[in-house]
């Protein structure tokens, strides 16, 4: 397939692995890129020297394009930007902040810029800031969600109709069928996080990968909306958050409950009781841990089969 996204990134398949904190190191990014998709290093959980190490190792492991996800609220963002430019990372996905501040800097360095949004309003602002494409993420996602809780099904067509640059769908996508649905809504690629968490190359702790596979329907909930909206697997920490939110805890109290290092404790160090376990609602449909290349190939094959089936149904109706 060739479309605006595959041309923009120089990739074979319009499948992008999300840059998830604690889960998206160079091993996963290079594996996805080598398989024909776009791998992304998640820099939000990395100190500057760690990001530099991962970028260098990723460049050594693949000759294909890859990207870095850069949360714009990251404390040492200047050092991350310097690393990205110094090592000529070809693509940057920005998130959690205003893209206007840094997009021009990246563009001047010849870097393609994509911004993650959860609404048409902010998608238009990102387009006005000069980004090359938009990730529209529905609230089914595990990462930092929009407070309006707009689903992917409702979000994608509105954004696709409201901007002129390519739209990448995210949130609740882990299969070829879901990818086909996103394309039917106007997307030109999909960004997938949770399915790649449960991959062999993911830097997530094995306990977390297995917990994702075990998570069933209703096993996650969007929480911490007053602090930073994230979807959590229901464990002891989640129950503490839920109890606090139900009694009307302030944002300050919730921030204190979250503390520092809670996500690292859960997703990277493997504490399934008191750690913060961010994952998408689609976790209930993930049943195994596989190599990233196999995951990508299965999604692409199912996408093609689904599109063929829909075309056959259309022919049969004529």
What's a quick, concise take on this entry?
The chain is an alpha/beta fold. The protein contains 14 helices and ten strands. It has two domains: 4-203 and 288-317, Alpha-Beta Barrel (TIM Barrel), CATH 3.20.20.70; 216-281, no CATH class.
Q: What can you see in these coordinates?
A:
There is one protein chain. The protein has 318 residues and is α/β, with parallel strands linked by helices. It folds into two domains: 230 residues, TIM Barrel (Alpha-Beta Barrel); 66 residues, no CATH class. Helix content is 44%, strand content 14%. The chain has 14 helices and ten strands. The strands form two sheets. The protein has an eight-stranded parallel beta sheet with strand order 1-8-7-6-5-4-3-2. A two-stranded antiparallel ribbon has the order 9-10. It is globular and about 55 Å long.
Q: Could you say how many structural domains there are in total?
A: 2
Helices and strands: which structural class? alpha/beta
The helix content, as a percent range, equals 40-55%
* SSE order: HEHEHEHEHEHEHEHEHHEEHHHH
What is the number of strand segments? 10
User: Please, what is the average pLDDT?
Assistant: 94
CATH topology of the largest domain: TIM Barrel
The CATH architecture of the largest domain is Alpha-Beta Barrel
List low-pLDDT spans. Answer: none
What would CATH call the homologous superfamily of the largest domain?
A: Aldolase class I
Q: What about the largest sheet?
A: 8 strands, parallel
Q: Please state the overall shape, judged from the principal axes of the Cα atoms.
A: globular
**Quaternary class:** single chain
- The tally of helices reads 14
Question: What is the distance, rounded to the nearest whole angstrom, between the alpha carbons of the first and last residues?
Answer: 26 Å
Write down the CATH class of the largest domain: Alpha Beta
Strand order of the largest sheet: 1-8-7-6-5-4-3-2
What fraction strand?
5-15%
């Amino acid at each position: 397939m060739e479309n605006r996204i595959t041309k923009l990134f120089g990739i074979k398949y319009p499948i992008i692995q999300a840059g998830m904190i604690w889960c998206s190191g160079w091993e996963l990014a290079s594996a996805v890129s080598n398989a024909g998709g776009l791998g992304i290093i998640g820099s939000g959980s990395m100190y500057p020297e760690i990001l530099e190490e991962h970028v260098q190792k990723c460049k050594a492991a693949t000759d294909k394009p890859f990207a870095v996800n850069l949360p714009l609220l990251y404390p040492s963002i200047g050092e991350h930007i310097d690393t990205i430019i110094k090592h000529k990372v070809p693509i940057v996905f920005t998130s959690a902040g205003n893209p206007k501040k840094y997009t021009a800097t990246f563009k001047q360095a010849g870097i393609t810029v994509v911004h993650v949004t959860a609404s048409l309003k902010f998608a238009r602002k990102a387009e006005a800031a000069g980004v090359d494409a938009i990730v529209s993420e529905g609230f089914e996602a595990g990462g930092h969600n929009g407070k309006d809780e707009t689903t992917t099904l409702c979000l994608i067509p509105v954004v696709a109709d409201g901007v002129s640059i390519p739209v990448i769908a995210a949130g609740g996508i882990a299969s070829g069928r879901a990818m086909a649905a996103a394309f039917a809504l106007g997307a030109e690629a999909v960004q997938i996080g949770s399915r790649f968490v449960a991959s062999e190359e993911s830097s997530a702790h094995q306990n977390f990968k297995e917990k994702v596979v075990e998570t069933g329907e209703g096993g996650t909930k969007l929480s911490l909306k007053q602090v930073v909206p994230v979807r959590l697997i229901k464990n002891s920490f989640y129950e503490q958050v839920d109890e606090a939110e139900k009694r009307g805890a302030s944002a300050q109290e919730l921030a204190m409950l979250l503390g520092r290092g809670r996500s690292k404790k859960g997703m990277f160090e493997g504490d399934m009781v008191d750690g913060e376990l961010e994952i998408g609602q689609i976790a209930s449909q993930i049943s195994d841990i596989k190599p990233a290349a196999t995951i990508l190939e299965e999604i692409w094959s199912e996408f093609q089969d689904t599109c063929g089936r829909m075309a056959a149904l259309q022919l049969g109706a004529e």
